[in-house]
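In the design runs reported in the main text, the only information available to the sequence generator was the tokenized backbone. The following block is the verbatim input for one such run; it is reproduced so that readers can re-run the procedure and compare outputs position by position.
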């Protein structure tokens, strides 16, 4: 049966109260500070807030008592019904390095999923303290089972008039006015927007240079990671990078990465597959290999040919 053959029924009586819901903070829609976020990014943030209850249940906290979650790209693709590239873009909108900063991702390496810290959207710069502060905080609470429930009418936490009135309150209007006259907020959003644009620009350039759609088929797990390393390095604001123990100016590293093509990426994969030594820092290893690829690729394949020819001649004897 196709989607067009489905007939949905009306709700009768109190039937709507039998469900659990994901809840997205209202501030993400009414506060101008979040106007640059796409609807997909806001929905994903709501899903991540809901996932926090699982982390609390499993006591997933770091040494500073900060709660983190696990939310893989494949899960995002499934829940958001999107492909790999779209999932990466949505994450980038929320990310602290590439987007607005509502999440912070910490890579663990060795094939482990990244830790994701879901940042509190209620910060002094974006939200003033009001009499309704407790109501706003309730927007991010979830039930003990890990799902957002529907509040009961007339409860202490949600008054009837708050549940019925969907218009912007006077308090929220006051916050919006305060935000609009504060130039620092606009500057913050403008800077974040430029960072995203810069990240997207390098992403498209690198994908074209290395023939991404073709090369990713060779190793769907490693190639996206290599692409991310190239983008993060090109967009980094540091002055230099440590390559094989030497400090190389960031601009030179960026230029070298921009010169890479699909053959260089295949060379990096071949070298990674042939390496039998334990790699302590895989990111540093891949960056160094990418940087050195244009200079070492010919010698690498020449030695492999010599080895194969020598081995063959010995067998013929």
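Verbatim output:
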């Amino acid at each position: 049966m196709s989607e067009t053959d489905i007939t949905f029924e009306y709700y009768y009586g109190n039937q709507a109260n039998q469900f659990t819901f994901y809840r997205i903070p209202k501030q993400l829609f009414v506060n101008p500070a979040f106007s640059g976020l796409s609807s997909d990014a806001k929905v994903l943030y709501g899903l991540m807030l809901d996932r926090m209850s699982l982390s609390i249940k499993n006591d997933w906290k770091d040494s500073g008592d900060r709660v983190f979650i696990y939310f893989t790209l494949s899960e995002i693709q499934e829940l958001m019904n999107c492909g790999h590239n779209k999932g990466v873009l949505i994450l980038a909108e929320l990310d602290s390095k590439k987007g607005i900063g509502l999440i912070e991702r910490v890579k663990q390496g060795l094939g482990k999923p990244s830790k994701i810290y879901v940042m509190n959207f209620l910060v002094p710069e974006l939200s003033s303290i009001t009499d309704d502060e407790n109501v706003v905080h309730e927007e991010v609470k979830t039930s003990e089972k890990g799902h957002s429930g529907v509040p009961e009418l007339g409860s202490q936490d949600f008054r009837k008039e708050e549940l019925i009135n969907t218009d912007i309150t006077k308090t929220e209007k006051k916050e919006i006015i305060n935000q609009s006259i504060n130039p620092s907020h606009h500057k913050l959003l403008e800077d974040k927007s430029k960072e995203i644009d810069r990240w997207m620009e390098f992403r498209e350039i690198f994908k074209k240079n290395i023939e991404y759609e073709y090369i990713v088929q060779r190793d769907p797990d490693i190639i996206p990671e290599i692409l991310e390393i190239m983008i993060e390095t090109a967009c980094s604001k540091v002055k230099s990078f440590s390559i094989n123990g030497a400090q190389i100016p960031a601009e030179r590293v960026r230029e070298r990465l921009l010169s890479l093509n699909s053959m260089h990426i295949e060379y990096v994969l071949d070298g990674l597959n042939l390496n039998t030594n334990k790699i302590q820092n895989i990111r540093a290893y891949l960056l160094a290999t990418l940087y050195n690829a244009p200079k070492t690729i010919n010698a690498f394949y020449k030695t492999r040919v010599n080895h194969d020819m020598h081995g063959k001649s010995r067998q013929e004897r």
